[in-house]
Amino acid sequence: MAEVSASPVSIVLVHGGFVDGAGWEGVYNGLKKDGYNVTVVQNPTTSLSDDVAATRLAIAQVQGPVVLVGHSYGGVVITEAGTDPKVAGLVYITAFAPDKGESVQSLIQNPPPGAPVPPILPPVNGYLFLDKSKFRASFAADVSEAKAAFLADSQVPWGVNALAGAISEPAWKTKPSWYLVATEDRMIPPPAQRQMATRAGAVVAEAAGSHAIYISQPETVAALIAEAAKGVSGKMAAA
């Protein structure tokens, strides 16, 4: 415990589309128990630039180097915001890891045959929602019915501008990264996750879980984040 508590690395957690930062509570509690300084970003999910600004604000408020963690669309946000000099490493939790010029929109344009199609409803006034009746099956199959219903009913509108936001310089090209593949994910197909993780040169872990693995298996997610924090701490100590 003392060794971890002495770590100079802070953790910044970035949520994805349709949800807010409250889903990180289990991961937050596990990391705090291990002595880490943890900040949870509340993205407006209105546009990529707005979300990057919110994330950079959180990075600016913490001491020392940062491990930046993104779930789902949060992976796009950390890919863009992670070029901040304070960011020492990136962790993708069943997330998009785009290259330069890519966006969620471009990455999901041509799904492979047989891949599950997320039940995204037509936009309303420039914002997207998931079909509530299909939310649990697609997003949160391994959380309780009651919790999935709450997530479905408390959806945060996801701006089409966020979906279309393209990366200028991907942080994973210059920062070490880790990636957790959720093998039962029905929002981002696991083969696509593996392809993005390999392209980013990430350290890859896999676990059987839904897109909401950060809620259903917080210990698994927190363990990979702690591994990343120790990894960047070791590199800094060796430098």
Automatic annotation (TrEMBL):
<dbReference type="Pfam" id="PF12697">
    <property type="entry name" value="Abhydrolase_6"/>
</dbReference>
<protein>
    <submittedName>
        <fullName>Pimeloyl-ACP methyl ester carboxylesterase</fullName>
    </submittedName>
</protein>
<feature type="domain" description="AB hydrolase-1">
    <location>
        <begin position="11"/>
        <end position="223"/>
    </location>
</feature>
<dbReference type="InterPro" id="IPR000073">
    <property type="entry name" value="AB_hydrolase_1"/>
</dbReference>
<dbReference type="InterPro" id="IPR052897">
    <property type="entry name" value="Sec-Metab_Biosynth_Hydrolase"/>
</dbReference>
<dbReference type="InterPro" id="IPR029058">
    <property type="entry name" value="AB_hydrolase_fold"/>
</dbReference>
